[in-house]
Amino acid sequence: MIQSEASLIDTDPAELADPHALAARLGVRAGTVRLGQTRIAVSSTDPRAVTYLHDLFTPANDIWEHLPDDFSPCSLTAVNLAVSDACFERLVDHYAAQAVRRQAVHLHVAAPGIRYEMADGTWAVVSEPDEIDGTNLVVQSPRGLVFVTTARPYAHLALARHLREFGYRRGESDGWAGLHASCAATPEGNVVVIGRSGAGKSTTALALAAASGCGFVANDRVMVRVEGEQVTACGMPVPIRINGGTMHALGLKDATSWQLTRRQPDFVTSDWQNFCGDSKLNLLPVEWRARTGTALVPSVRLTAIVLPHVTKDSAVLSVRRVGPDEAREVLAEQLMTPDDDVFVEDWLHARTRDRDEIGALAGRTFEALMRLPILVTELGTRNTLVNLSSSIREALGTLRG
């Protein structure tokens, strides 16, 4: 059943080395992806991969955009194929046997793999298998990329994941820095919410975004760039990951019945109900909008930094402005470019600047962020997110005035 849904095909290494010709043979162009200034023509044999790519890259922003009906010229081609297990094994065996050089790589921190370099300059990366997602084969040549998967329940997510990372690396080269943070837009000002794991970043940003006239920009991953005296922020296309504590605090009680794209936690036996639990609901921003009515905002000019702190079994609520020294350490920890603890290496070789240049750009971004007003918030779990949101917006209004 899974195989028929994935439209499995057979192919050979010669076809994978020429993604443009392969896409022409398949005749299944699915539109264009814009990654920074790079336009890539995308084809896929699996319509689920295209749907997920479009949904993940919504709303479009300055780095990532999927244009389903755009057939303008592109500089690269990306092809997504689902093949049989036997075909996949033949392809991997070919690259392993023909490689002139091989090395260990990480597609991301939890996905180690092997990179095989061919004599003609083509290279292939094979990830270690995952029991849910299966394994991935990525072949890169001067003309583009071919992403090969097998028939697994979530294998079709790989196309969007890899194109997202390609865009991330191009974004780094264009001056964007990755920040482990959340972001929300309000009429009084736009805030990036920064803190260590469990500090309340998602809770605070989603509470702000939910109010009338406000909007959601990003959860967990924010891209920031200095433009003159301003700092622009947009969201990296990642799922919103929240646990039951935040859901209940936002007044959402029936999330366990939601039909969602991503794999979900065990709602019965996991710690998903805890504020700081490891098991979290996974839903795309477009799914969050559909179920909560929250507006999605592509990008904003930042007005302030918020450093949240949630205190259990307390009714405390406070918002105070602090100096830059109170934020410097946590911001330095959460600014991920070029030392990212998830996307640990540029295995796609998508960067167009070297590591030192990217580090210098990130350093300038850090100093610009440190010039923004900084608010520290404290919320007790016996208080309400409505009160927190109102207090932050009042403080932002004071800053603007």
TrEMBL record:
Cited InterPro entries: P-loop_NTPase (IPR027417)
Name listed for the protein in its UniProt record: HprK-related kinase B
Source species: Micromonospora echinofusca
Phylogenetic lineage: Bacteria, Bacillati, Actinomycetota, Actinomycetes, Micromonosporales
